[in-house]
Amino acid sequence: MNLFKQLKIGVITLILALLSNTLQAQITNDITDNEAFKALLAAKKSAEENNVLVNIAVVDAGANLKAFIRMDESYLGSIDVAIKKAKTARYFNIDTGELGELTQPGGIIYNIELSNNGLVSFPGGLPIKNKEGKIIGAIGVSGGTIEQDRAIATIGAKSILN
Amino acid sequence: MNLFKQLKIGVITLILALLSNTLQAQITNDITDNEAFKALLAAKKSAEENNVLVNIAVVDAGANLKAFIRMDESYLGSIDVAIKKAKTARYFNIDTGELGELTQPGGIIYNIELSNNGLVSFPGGLPIKNKEGKIIGAIGVSGGTIEQDRAIATIGAKSILN
Amino acid sequence: MNLFKQLKIGVITLILALLSNTLQAQITNDITDNEAFKALLAAKKSAEENNVLVNIAVVDAGANLKAFIRMDESYLGSIDVAIKKAKTARYFNIDTGELGELTQPGGIIYNIELSNNGLVSFPGGLPIKNKEGKIIGAIGVSGGTIEQDRAIATIGAKSILN
Amino acid sequence: MNLFKQLKIGVITLILALLSNTLQAQITNDITDNEAFKALLAAKKSAEENNVLVNIAVVDAGANLKAFIRMDESYLGSIDVAIKKAKTARYFNIDTGELGELTQPGGIIYNIELSNNGLVSFPGGLPIKNKEGKIIGAIGVSGGTIEQDRAIATIGAKSILN
Questions:
Q1: Which listed residue, C114, D1, D37, D99, has the most CB atoms within 10 A of its CB?
Q2: What ipTM was reported for this prediction?
Q3: Considering its fold, how many domains does chain A have in total?
């Protein structure tokens, strides 16, 4: 085999390898269980470091529950709030806190919270995006202040990019 | 009695005393049926003395219904309100009236009442704490004015400390 | 006015007074809170004597919750079953066990349990009758065997006659 | 060292040992988040080894959701089934498969599934017990055959004992 052929084979191999990587990345339009666990654990770690007791929920691209954890002694009422935050964030691909600005009395989508068996429209719910920026799910955090919940949700959502 | 025997008895007494204290603390994680009855009856007595007709609900540490009474002629609609007040108070370990200050239009957790199959966020729901200050359940009172409901709930919640 | 007329008036007055008493008794077509407590306590005492852990619910003539107690360590799932047994018994003025004989596959009211937000059609729910035999509410017991539940419910229902 | 000192040290050691045991027993009334994670991961590992795709839910002693994971490509409909299996197992402290034997047409608690917002009465839900044998929560598995679900749930429930 001459050098040219060797080079050609090498190049084709490289192209296939690159394509394969791209294709692999392309089909990840839904969060995996491992990514969901990763988001849960990163969020939980952040909550523990900041002495906040939270419930953390992750939903997939279909807004269906993918993973959940309730930290010991966190609010019982936050189970449902965390799940609803995650679902709300995915239902409308939005930071739940931004949604809340539109749902107040006089707002353009006043009382939309009554749809979908109940939305939550204050901070703590965020879409989860993959490296290509595509939304693959969402995370909801409840139990701390709304600022703490949003900060913890942000850490969880970004953790899957590492 | 020689020194050895005296020492032995003293030590055994000490062990028993320490164990006894530890065990007492151990069993007070959840409200008992007798405590729940006590809270109901104290609240009902207070309502009768003040000529208020109320529904009274007690939930346990898991926010599950533990005890309930509806006074004759009290509002039928207050059955569910009293139960939801008790659950809300335990869901978020809070005086339901304080929760309501945060859920108004413009409030930081506006419309959270839509979560958990419906919360109640005006006064009349209170956590119940044991002598060690640990929350072991909650009480909800509905039927009077919100001030009356809160006052009656307070008497019910505190009654288990006597 | 002669003696005859005086007598007539006296007799009519007497009749009216007697009727009034009768009518007063007649208007108690709804269980009182004291009767509901009495039924709860009698049922609970019977359960304790037989070492059964149960939930006990009493509903009024309108099938609305009147009183409830969950014994320590009894089933969490029996909260709802006890309440539904009491409601079912009053909805159809029937021993819930008798209802169940009609709701089986092939039965004349197959799957009626799906109505009314869920009925319970096995033993443990019984109407509560006053001394005149009028149904004034119902009791539901859940946590033991169906025979135990029915026996305890019977004791609770009959207790208000004493 | 004289006899007195030896005795003193021995006694103190004994006290500490006894207290330690008592305290350990004290904190195991409800499943912890770490235990819930442990059960999830053990169950998931078993499912993967057996090429089964399942949803796994863990509830606490109050039957409230504690942890959850949905494996990639597992049934969407199994999210709710897994959660309801876990809740059912804790509601009645029972293997859900054993419950199902009693709820068939003609069974002594026919149609009890309609209570508690829907129970699941086939295998895959199991109480979780601590080392002292006390029920501290429950696990529900759904997605495989009922035999697989039960086997995976068993592994999850037992994992916390190690």
A1: D99
A2: 0.83
A3: 2
